[in-house]
Amino acid sequence: MRELVDFFVRSRNFILFLLLEVICFYFIINTSNYWSATYFNTANRYTARMLTWSNAVNDFARLRQVNAELAKENQQLHARVTSLQQGHPPAPAAYRADSVFANRFKYTVAKVIDNTTQLANNYITIDKGTDDGIQPGMAVISPTGVVGKVRTCNQHFSVITSILHTDFFVSSQLVKANDIGPARWDGNDPHSIKLTDISRYKPVSVGDSVVTSEHNSTFPPGILIGRVSKVGVQPDQTFHDITINLSTNFTTLAFVYVIQNQLRDEQTQLEKQNETDK
């Protein structure tokens, strides 16, 4: 307390000067319309600028929360769209899908915490594991397209085999040509993969969409993989040489959706039994 009093005593002249300056400033503003208007215009301008900066900082600080909320909303929308697609498939009018089939896909949102794109075989780590219902073999997509498939899990984390893996392929369908073939990465450009086994006599054009086909038990049908960027024919081959630009940008991947096919085990068991019977 004594030090505070000593400080005021030592600085009394300076404090008196500041006090007189404030009083003079107050009288100038209140006795002159010109200086009053100038003060308020200047004050308002700088106040507005400070509020803009403050809001920008607050918005930036909330980006993580906003992204998480958007990912959660997209999860619900994906589930809804898939349910509608499965409930009204492109089939004869006499066909009616039951509610179990229509709701067979369950979505779980997860955050990417590690991701490689420069290797021949790339993997992605997410912050969800078995405690969240994640199991090996589940499909993984992003808001823009296919990502890969769950490889291993523990309680709180999972490792995904990325589509940028030379041993990973997904059954794909050309939307316009209505033809199906496997899509696989060749280990080169992390923005594109190859689509094979498409007959050279099928009409394929640059820009055609490629989606997941009905012929797999992992991915829901109709999930975008990418668009055709190059079409050619290799010598002495009966198939197109097709390059696809991936719809998912793996270098900026932040959130993904893990998809559980709740009828997968039932389907796989029946298919294995059929192979055994043969």
UniProtKB/TrEMBL annotation:
GO terms for cellular component: plasma membrane. Belongs to the MreC family. Keywords: Cell shape, Membrane, Transmembrane, Transmembrane helix. It holds the Pfam family MreC. Residues 112-260 form the Rod shape-determining protein MreC beta-barrel core domain. This is Cell shape-determining protein MreC. The keyword Transmembrane applies. It comes from the Bacteria. Signal peptide: none annotated. GO terms for biological process: regulation of cell shape.
